[in-house]
């Protein structure tokens, strides 16, 4: 093998589990027009995989940091390896993976796998699992920085307030979850359309966060290149060597879909994003029953969600379906 070939940087390859591949290829189409109140076929399909779900959630608990100086996540046990999906970092010289980073599989209606369906006698009441984040697998420092990085940046689109929001606090969740995994954000950029006084915004925000945040209390602009288009800001401040986390939960589907379209259309932009969280509002899932029907304007179904998250993950982005 030539020296020039060996000088190439490693590449990232997405490897969905067979369970995810089946949902993406066929099962999502079978349930995309299910009655959202009962979601009968979807719940039956999820209940048939109860052993896989148990292994998945057990691994999430095992992987959760138990002390603040934890530096390395545990390897998935054998029973979880066939269930989880992975991003593989491939050595360009040998063609072999040098790292396999797990991520939750895309299955069901892309929330907690025990949400909504009454077949699961989980410890958490079945309705409340709709808002549970206990299925997510965020990156640890050792996964985010396999090579030299410079800064960690968080872009929160639909930020609410630091300790509160319509679906629960999100900004504080991200700060705390990544800090426990060894990642401290150097800068936070937040957009929130609902108007608040400065006193309200900063009242419960910890002092160290006020030192690093730019909080824009106005709607995002989806016109490419405009001043308050978040992607313009991201292009201006982020480098490919930074670790960049983005969350989109604006609850305005035309705005969200326009932002996603811009992200997917511009490889120079998407290459800057490492980890991505998005609550994709689509028709006919149980979430339509829990409130998405009020004000959601979209033609997208669950099939569109699988296509979207699959594209993002194949670009090397750790894309998660958010709550």
Quick rundown:
By secondary structure, the protein is an alpha/beta fold. It has helices at 3-6, 18-31, 40-47, 50-63, 78-81, 141-144, 171-180, 198-203, 207-210, 230-237, 253-265, 267-270, 286-292, 302-314; strands at residues 11-15, 85-90, 97-103, 152-157, 187-191, 213-216, 243-248, 275-278, 318-321. It is 35% helix and 15% strand.
Please, could you describe this protein's structure?
The mean pLDDT is 92. The strands form two sheets. The protein has a six-stranded parallel beta sheet, with helices on one face. The chain starts with a helix and ends with a strand. It folds into two domains: 1-138, no CATH class; 140-273, Rossmann fold. The protein contains 14 helices and nine strands. The radius of gyration is 20 Å and the shape is globular. It is an alpha/beta fold. A hairpin with a 6-residue loop joins β2 and β3. Helix content is 35%, strand content 15%. α2 runs antiparallel to α14.
């Amino acid at each position: 093998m030539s020296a020039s070939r060996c000088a190439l940087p490693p590449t990232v390859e997405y490897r969905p589990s067979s369970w995810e591949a089946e949902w993406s290829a066929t099962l999502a189409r079978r349930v995309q027009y299910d009655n959202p109140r009962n979601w009968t076929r979807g719940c039956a399909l999820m209940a048939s995989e109860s052993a896989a779900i148990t292994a998945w959630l057990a691994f999430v608990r095992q992987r959760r940091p138990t002390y603040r100086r934890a530096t390395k996540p545990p390897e998935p046990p054998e029973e979880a390896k066939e269930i989880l999906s992975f991003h593989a970092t491939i050595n360009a010289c040998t063609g072999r993976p040098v790292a396999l980073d797990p991520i939750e599989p895309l299955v069901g209606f892309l929330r907690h796998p025990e949400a909504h369906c009454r077949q699961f006698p989980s410890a958490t009441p079945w309705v409340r699992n709709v808002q549970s984040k206990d299925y997510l697998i965020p990156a640890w420092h050792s996964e985010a920085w396999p090579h030299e990085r410079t800064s960690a940046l968080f872009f929160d689109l639909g930020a609410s307030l630091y300790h509160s929001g319509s679906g629960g606090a999100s900004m504080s969740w991200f700060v705390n979850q990544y800090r426990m995994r060894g990642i401290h954000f150097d800068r936070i950029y937040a957009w929130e359309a609902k108007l608040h006084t400065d006193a309200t915004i900063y009242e419960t925000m910890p002092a160290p966060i006020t030192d690093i945040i730019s909080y824009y209390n106005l709607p995002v602009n989806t016109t490419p290149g405009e001043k308050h288009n978040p992607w313009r800001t991201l292009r201006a401040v982020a480098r490919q060597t930074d670790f960049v986390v983005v969350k989109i939960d604006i609850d305005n589907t035309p705005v969200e879909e326009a932002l996603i379209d811009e992200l997917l259309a511009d490889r120079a932009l998407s290459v800057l994003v490492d980890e991505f969280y998005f609550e994709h509002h689509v028709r006919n899932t149980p979430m339509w029953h829990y409130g998405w029907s009020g004000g959601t304007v979209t033609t997208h179904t669950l099939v569109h969600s699988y296509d979207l998250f699959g594209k993002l993950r194949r670009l090397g982005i750790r894309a998660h379906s958010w709550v």
